[in-house]
Amino acid sequence: MLKYEQLLDVAYQSLPEKKSTGERFEIPVADTFLQGNKTLLRNFDALCQTLRRKPEEVSKFLFRELATPGALDGSRLLLHAKLSPRLVNEKIALYAQSHVICRECKKPDTYLLSHGRGPKTLVCEACGARSPVLA
After folding, report:
1. For the residues 5-17, what does the mean pLDDT come to?
2. Is residue 33 part of a domain?
3. So what's the pLDDT on residue 9?
4. Residue 81: which of 71, 64, 94, 68 has the closest Cα?
């Protein structure tokens, strides 16, 4: 008969490896597809839901940062340039850092507050911090 500690060891060895970092929020990875000289983001809608931002806001940021025109195509984003997946994911990470994650408590529980023509303000629901969002 096996002892309790030995049974625990056997149970831990049969568990699968951890694949997540343990963080509650992970910056999503874009599922890109090159179609001729255009780049298609297939999971753009899911990406926006994870970031808790409107697709129009995220696409506008990507168009400006990638210096390319594009269009929303249902749940996908079409960029009119041939772009590497690494570059697209870097820009999505930049968007998350500047427009989603709170600068004070580093949590993603934020929303953007618009003041007409002035700069937008990032408001944190967790700690209450407010900070301007440039660009």
Report:
1. 83
2. yes
3. 86
4. 68
